[in-house]
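Much of what follows relies on a compact textual record of a protein's fold. Think of the row as the fold of the chain written in a discrete alphabet. An example makes this concrete, so a full record is given next.


***
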Amino acid sequence: QEQEEEEEEEERQKESALPPPPAPEDPAAESDGRTVKLDMDRLNSLFTCRICGGYFRDAHTITECLHTFCKSCLLKSFNEGYNVCPHCKVDLGPQPRNLILYDRTMQELVNKVLPGLDREDEEKEADFYAARGIKRKAIEQPTDEQAMAQPSSVSTSTAASVPSPASPASRDMAFKLAPDASPTTTPEMQLASLAKPFIKVNGKLKVSQLKKYLAKKLSVDDPEKIDVLCKGEILGKELSVNFVRCTRWRHEDNMLLNYRKHQDI
């Protein structure tokens, strides 16, 4: 019996010494322990611009629908007068450039999976300038002394919470558009609600341009038949939305602008 127990113990030790069974193979990835090989046929659709058909260069995503394209492809489409998403055709309003954001995560993924793209682009750009005899401008990097001398971007002043019209932070701003429901608005002056009431525009956008946008969305034949209000005050068409935020709204949260049919007094 003791001999049988010893044999069983030897068998258990042999089994524990065996290597673990191999993991099931993933057809999309192969590994040699140091590198991972990806099946690009299965990943191409994730990293490909639907406009040019190439891999993303300076990837930018439309905030309205979250579709991603090359920045240059998007700007070319906008310059040709197409103020919609090139893929799903969602309307991007009068300022489509303000509804796109640099997609850092997507671009970093492309650069990691395809590390040769950046180098290839730099070589092509250098060849382009060399063939035309154009001297490229060197990108100046600030010295340590210059970097230390720059003022901090974070201010503890309470006045800095509301950016001035000239500040870079005021270039883009988001706000909500809603029908006016104040007691001074009669039922005949009421207008319909927008399907997408939240918009993001350049802070320099004039109220007159905002009226044109509302007229298009609400099928009003004349933009001057629409009044835009902030806190019950009818806004002049020459005012910018950023000026309205700083002088009428005066809050840190998203601004609310109302609209209604214009009524002659």
